[in-house]
Design brief:
- The structure is a homotetramer of 207-residue chains.
- By secondary structure, the first copy, chain A, is mainly α.
- Chain A folds into 2 domains: 54 residues, Homeodomain-like (Arc Repressor Mutant, subunit A), CATH 1.10.10; 147 residues, Tetracycline Repressor, domain 2, CATH 1.10.357.10.
- Chain A is built from 9 helices and no strands.
- Chain A starts with 6 loop residues before the first helix and ends with a helix.
- The interface between A and B is large, with 56 and 56 residues.
- Chain B binds a DNA duplex (21 and 21 nucleotides) through helix 3.
DNA sequence: GATGAATGAGTATTCATTCAT
DNA sequence: TATGAATGAATACTCATTCAT
């Protein structure tokens, strides 16, 4: 059937736009990317981006929500309360870290939004809030409700330890020997995070 | 003599531009801020921005370098090697934290650049590298040279714990009770960081 | 159907821009003409100029190349080597002169570039070189290869005699009686050029 | 007397501006040169240009008039009616050519104005008119008052032969072997012009 | 005579978006 | 579903010019 794009091809274009937008936004930030850039990278007509996504803002929101959906489902799977505390926390760290590895643009996308203009702050807030609730839940009975050792602080600290590694990677590559996002480097970082959790848990127990 | 620009007013305009740029860039990011915005916020003619700073890029670089200079001098003051390890690290944490408190746009400015297009990545790289060297120096003899406990990882982790609190603040304000940047909340965060350092040091010693 | 752009109207806009640019550049020179001027003269939106031509420089280059193409084909048609020398040279003079009459902006456009900043000098150079080769070819066997009577000098002299009449026209109109670009005045100039060729050829033969 | 610029230094600045303007206008054209460029090239403060010359336009006019004054005096000296026709015309050609050689920007400055916007057309007109009257005077009794052989046409032809060599020089340098403005090349061109005058005079006599 | 600061108007160019087809 | 053409608003930047000192 020449001339008539098959159904799979149709969704293809919409998806290709989404993927291109994801990469470009992640690399360069919302403002630095033009719809023309996205269309070109996706190999589609510029007007088609608007046909499918309405506006540049909406497209960006779609990219974000898409991440949050898979983000949430990734973490939810690791939240079952079985086993001892260490195992449970270890599973969370792994799930979070796996997600970051699989979605490399995510960290930068989120940090840009948090540090930048508050245009899409609501989405971010929802996500952060959810993450914090989970941290609180995971540390229940271990961390106090208030003060410097509260789960709230642990959340910020762990989030930073988790996410900043991926955003710093590009800037630190020339300084460190080797690529911080290579497999062995990632394994090392994962081990660091596990160690950090262990140390903090011990500290909390001692308190 | 109102209306007549006194001598102190002269450098004033250049400074007002710098301050306005600092705030706006910090709040909204490089791309989202126009020179017109900056000029308006500084209360000066748009062309004057170019008269004093040459280009938007140069102005941004000036804002960054200005931070880095005071950042460096702030940390250098805390680097003397006297006293036991805990005291020394404690001084570093305080110095860093004090700097963040005093320069609220800094964290967001840096995170934007690190997560974003990297146009001014070189400046950031210099600064990050310097910070990392200091961390390595401060942990000398305590942290191994390689592996998950290396100073390199400690640097990323602490940097995240330090800086992300300030960038997350705006997004988390509605969730937490009270302003994360209020005096008492800041004191609490500072205590958390000191505690974190203690816990990590203990973990390193035990390793 | 007024108001509805017919198919012929489509390429119309791009062409109207080209024509407007031609006239304005010819009259006022590259720098003195703004894209706004061109758009206004063409009756189109300013951004459309960039949509079709990319940049002001490219638009100017298009105007020039367009001339050169027709210039070349006009002269090529007059270059066949049949008949006696006088006839052949006469045909060349007529072809060149016809072209100048039909493309009134051309002379000024070229002189501006030659005398001016030379931004588009390459195009001019190509064209001039080609013209010179033709002159050399046409005078082969008659003019020496070197010295004050070389074809090279004849080329500059004839080119000046040909082109300057059209550029001087505007400045000399008030002095001369009547319009130098009116039909009878042009016929007179054409006769002058034929006479000049005759006189020069005779001089070359006598040498 | 340190700190106090001597009188000669004062006129120095005004002159340096004039010279810089001359060169830059000649090279790049009126529009392409900014007052800042001129001031920088002259090594003076930008505002001083306005102090001395009032406006960019006025400065340009000054550059032109300055040329015309020396142009006129150069030619007037060659206009005495003594000696036979050949000698008289030869002296004119030499005087004109000498002037062009000594004032290399002149040709381009004039051609720019003639071909470009008519902003300073009046000055040019005056000068051209004067030149034409002289040509008519020099050819009195030889050339008819009207028709293709009129002095009017001779003027345009000779003017073109004279001036275009200097404007074409830059564009043709790569094509010709050697620099068209080198001493020997100039001598050759001068010989060409003398030959041309001779040939034309002969043709006029024969008519 | 000389200058640094200041400005309003203008420049080329880009962009998100719309729309007829 | 897909696209080429079209546009109004915005952007960074430049310029000739003025003026207080």
């Amino acid at each position: 059937m020449p001339g008539k794009p098959s159904e799979s091809k149709r969704k293809d274009k919409s998806l290709r736009i989404l993927v291109a937008a994801d990469e470009l936004f992640g690399e360069q930030g919302y403002d630095a990317v033009s719809v023309r850039d996205i269309a070109r990278a996706a190999g589609v007509n510029k007007a088609l981006v608007f046909y499918y996504f309405g506006s540049k803002e909406d497209l960006f929101a779609r990219v974000l929500t898409r991440y949050y959906e898979s983000h949430r489902s990734a973490l939810e799977g690791a939240l079952d309360a079985s086993g001892p505390l260490d195992k449970r926390l270890g599973r969370l760290v792994d799930a979070y870290f796996d997600f970051m590895v699989a979605n490399r643009s995510f960290a930068r996308l989120v940090q840009q939004q948090i540090a930048g203009p508050g245009t899409h702050l609501e989405l971010i807030q929802q996500n952060l809030t959810e993450l914090e609730r989970w941290t609180e839940h995971a540390l229940e009975g271990l961390a106090p409700n208030d003060g410097p050792l509260a789960a709230r602080h642990m959340f910020v600290t762990f989030s930073g330890a988790m996410i900043n590694y991926f955003t710093y990677a590009r800037a630190l590559r020339p300084v460190w020997g080797g690529d911080p996002l290579a497999d062995d480097a990632l394994a090392e970082r994962r081990a660091h995070l596990h160690w950090l959790v262990g140390v903090v848990v011990q500290g909390l127990k001692a308190a």
